[in-house]
Every structure is written in C-alpha cells, then in structure tokens.
Amino acid sequence: GPTNVLMDKTTNSLIICDRGNRRVIRQSCHHGITKTEILVNDVACRGLAMDDQGLLYVADYRKHVVKRYRIGDQNGTIVAGGNGKGSGLHQLNKPRYLFIDKQQSIYVSDSGNHRV
Prior knowledge:
Layout: E1 2-8, E2 13-18, E3 23-30, E4 33-41, E5 45-50, E6 56-60, E7 65-69, E8 77-81, E9 95-100, E10 106-110
Antiparallel strand pairs: 1-2, 2-3, 3-4, 5-6, 6-7, 7-8, 9-10
C-alpha cells in the first residue's frame, strides 16, 4: 500500500508512493473524474519530497539511493547514495523519509544506519 504522499500545489494533485506496485503515481481529480498517472516505475519508494522548483525526490529503500526527477522523466538523477548499501559517507542503508529545505539541502532518514 501507500507509504508516503505529498500535495503537488502546481497541479493540485496528490503524488503517492505506491509501494505495493513499486511505483510513484500522481492522482488528480477534475470535474469529478479521477486520473492516475505513473511518474516513476520499478522503485521501492518509502519517501517523497518536492522542492520549490517542482522537482520530485524519491527515496528507494531497496536500491539505497535518493533520486531527483523532473515530472515526466523516468530517468532520475542520483542525489544521495548510489555507492551500494552501507554506512560510508556516500552510502545509504534503507532510506525512508525526505525533507528539502529552501536552500535545496536534502535531509534523508537513513533508517538502516540510524542517522539523518
């Protein structure tokens, strides 16, 4: 089932971590019609965040990375982790929740390493 949700204020829609189906979706409702759009496939999503520029950040729990996506782009850019599972400086172990501040700093709840 869903593990995280955020409101996309520019499109007035919900962006949802659909963990059971290994994807991130956007749901919108206009004139009583609900539309579901797949934003990211093949991801063990646990955490989501969106910055002031509308870029989407996704924590992949199984690949131990955080990626940044432009909406409509399936190929995100790794912004944290990416060097395999571990406790090193450039490694993550089961990232879960995300927060992006006004200066574009990324805070990651790195659950397997018990750190932020």
